[in-house]
Design brief:
The protein is an alpha+beta fold. It has eight helices and 21 strands. The protein folds into three domains: about 100 residues, Pseudouridine synthase, CATH 3.30.2350; about 130 residues, 2-Layer Sandwich (Pseudouridine synthase), CATH 3.30.2350.10; about 60 residues, PUA domain (Archaeosine Trna-guanine Transglycosylase, Chain: A, domain 4), CATH 2.30.130. The longest helix is centred in the first third of the chain and has 12 residues.
Length: about 300
Amino acid sequence: MNSINTTNGYININKSIDWTSNDVVRKLKGLLGVKKIGHGGTLDPLATGVLPICLNSATRFSEYILHGSKSYLASIKLGESTDTYDSHGKVINTKDYSFITKKHIQDALCELKNIQFQIAPMYSALKHNGVPLYKLAREGKTVKRKIREIKIYKIELINYNLPFLTLKLDCSHGFYVRSFANDLGEKLGSLAHLVSLERTRAGVFELKNSIKIDDIDQYVKNGDINNYIMPVDYTLKHLKNFSCDISQEKMARTGQKISLSSINKPIIYDDKEDIVAYSEQNMMIGLLTFSKKDLELKAKKIINN
């Protein structure tokens, strides 16, 4: 177990329904005994699918998952709205949906694909003055929420069988599928709420490469869990990299700046660009950032071995 509780990296979990994201974190923390652990983006208890888990130093790089794009498979029911915008809530209104055709849906999706802003639902984990919105909502309170900038890259109507329809969505960070389902119902001249949701991708983590949370106990018992832990740089493949010699590695680890004039074949990076630093043994040291003004690389996030 010692080799596990000090490991830095990610586990791509396929979350089961009715588990909260924090339930998964607590489960793995207890099983693996890691010092630091967190998840790469909340999934509601209703939702299943990809939930990347960050272990130890990987928690410092979770932003590269949180701010990445996501993919979902969403099932929506027309004709009913709920107070939570999903099937876990109470039905608060009903409306006829029988007039809605497949073309109506496709036209509405084309319009909604261009939305650039969303307001988070009251039943969400976002906080207002330190209190989660869903707790305020349960008390019957409504507070003003900030408008969030979002982007929908792709929407595809997968299945259509009134009153149900299934969508595949590729979207940006911060997108609420529940809010989208509610908006779709209104756009169609009816009502709607989210029935089920599966996240099929979060950044570079895909459902096909995930492991079920229910199987974790067996993997740990068999000693196979290390085979499913991905390195910290798994989420950083899109960044440029820099190979440090022993002297430069020491400088990076002690917070000293590395001048490009000391490099045999200097590369000019973009100003404030993040670069992944590796040791001579090709082990990730951390992230460096470039100053174009000073022509220097300086430590941004260093992994403590």
